[in-house]
Amino acid sequence: MAIKFNPGLIIIVALLISFHSAESFSESVKHQAAGEAAGLDEAWEVLSGYHKDPHKIKKSIDMTEGILRKDPRNVEALLFLSRLWLTQGYVMTQSREELIRAFEEGKNTAEKALEIEPENADAHFFYVANLASLGDAKGLFNSLFMLPEVRRELDMILELDPGHPEGLAMNGALYYYLPGILGGDLYISEVYLRRALSVNPHLSSARIYLAMNLYKQKKYDETKKVLLELINDKEPSFYPDWYLNRRYALKILRQINKEMRKQTAKGSGNEILN
């Protein structure tokens, strides 16, 4: 079978989907002043509808920037804004220049969070997610140029938090994409992705990557099982992200079923000829 995955959609899946649920974000702002926490919760509420209206991403950005004008050292707001710019880049940009600007904004915002809390694993994650996306947007040479820093940041995330699900998933994605000559390894990739899912079974990005990994290993039945687990998930981490990933998983599943039917028909034809 030879299924071609859409690279653009794969990038979205890898770096955008399910970074943090609204529930975990709300938990992290409980100790802030009531007005600030309410503002961030409201921005999350706006973002939660972006799968129906992508313009809500920009509205959420504007709301979060308003919070930061009043409190520039609000780390949770900085992290959320970095995530928003990452989402804006993949969902709403219309040109390469806009894409680069969005990821640069996301990277710079995460850097501000790191200046305040250098040992914040989430800040390192949003920094490296935007950095990797920026390298991809600028082309292959820049991606390779940034690779050592990407590796260092991913190592730092797991040093600070060995059970960081998104950090584990991004390691899995990196080992999946890199050619063998640069350290890529499907088996190491699978280990990281399964570890990510053991921490957060609802991380749809990790399921998509695990399905792609298993498919590449020609484990077709396992691939379908992983895709169906994503499609039938009743408790996604963040519904809009899962909604987009679910659509992509359905597309992959249809392609796999189509190819398997072709292979079966071809085999039956050979039996008749023999």
Characterize the structure shown.
By secondary structure, the protein is mainly α. The protein is 77% helix and 0% strand. It has helices at 7-15, 22-28, 34-47, 55-70, 75-91, 96-116, 121-138, 140-160, 165-177, 186-199, 204-216, 220-231, 239-273. The longest helix is centred in the last third of the chain and has 35 residues, at 239-273. It is globular, with a radius of gyration of 20 Å. It starts with 6 loop residues before the first helix and ends with a helix.
Key terms:
274 residues; mainly alpha; 77% helix; disordered N terminus
Helix/strand order, N-terminal first: HHHHHHHHHHHHH
Radius of gyration, Cα only, in angstroms?
A: 20 Å
- Report the structural category: mainly alpha
Tally of strands = 0
Q: Please describe the biggest sheet, giving its number of strands, its sense, and whether it closes into a barrel.
A: none
Overall outline = globular
Number of helices: 13
User: How many angstroms separate the termini?
Assistant: 23 Å
Estimated helix fraction: over 70%
Stretches where pLDDT is under 50 for at least 5 consecutive residues are: 1-35
What percentage of amino acids are in beta strands? Answer: under 5%
Global mean pLDDT: 84
